[in-house]
Amino acid sequence: MLYLAMLLAAAVGGVCRFLLSNLLAAYWTKPFPLPTLVVNLSGAFLFGLLWAGKDLQQLSQAQWQILALAALGSFTTVSSLSLQTVILWRSRALRQALLYPGISVGGGLLLLLFGSWCGQQLW
After folding, report:
1. pLDDT tens string 48-66
2. What is the pLDDT of residues 76-120, one digit of tens each?
3. C-alpha 31: how far from chain center
4. Is 119 annotated as a binding residue?
């Protein structure tokens, strides 16, 4: 049953990523991959919230696996970040190619910590 729940959660996470990315891309036409950045940073925040719930024993191991690993795992992905960084580099947008992964990783770490703090307050 856990595997089925994880499968469904991963499908929901992937569809949410697709919808949010496309919604943002409809309004963002510049070469900087803002839609992926927004998805990755919001995912880091949500991951932090769930992590706090797990840490405070408000989420079971199964709930953690379903929500964080399956749903958010398919919602955010570093592979898109890597691909878009290479695309920026190859298009000679060198400054953006260096800036984008730094903002993504640094911002992701900060938002994960902030999400964890928020989760500590909520749980």
Report:
1. 999 999 989 999 999 999 9
2. 877 778 879 999 999 999 999 999 999 999 999 999 999 999 999
3. 20
4. no
Longest dimension (CA), the chain: 48
Residue 76 annotated as part of some ligand binding site:
yes
| pTM of the entire predicted model | 0.78
Q: Which residue has the tokens 């950045």?
A: 37
Residue type at position 88: L
Give 25-39 as a 3 state SS string.
Answer: HHHCCCCCCHHHHHH
Residues 6 or more apart in contact with residue 50 via CB below 8 angstroms: 59, 64, 67, 68, 72, 119
49 vs 59, 93, 111, CA distance in Å?
11, 34, 10
- Residue 40: CB partners within 8 Å, gap ≥ 6? 76, 77, 78, 80, 81, 104, 108
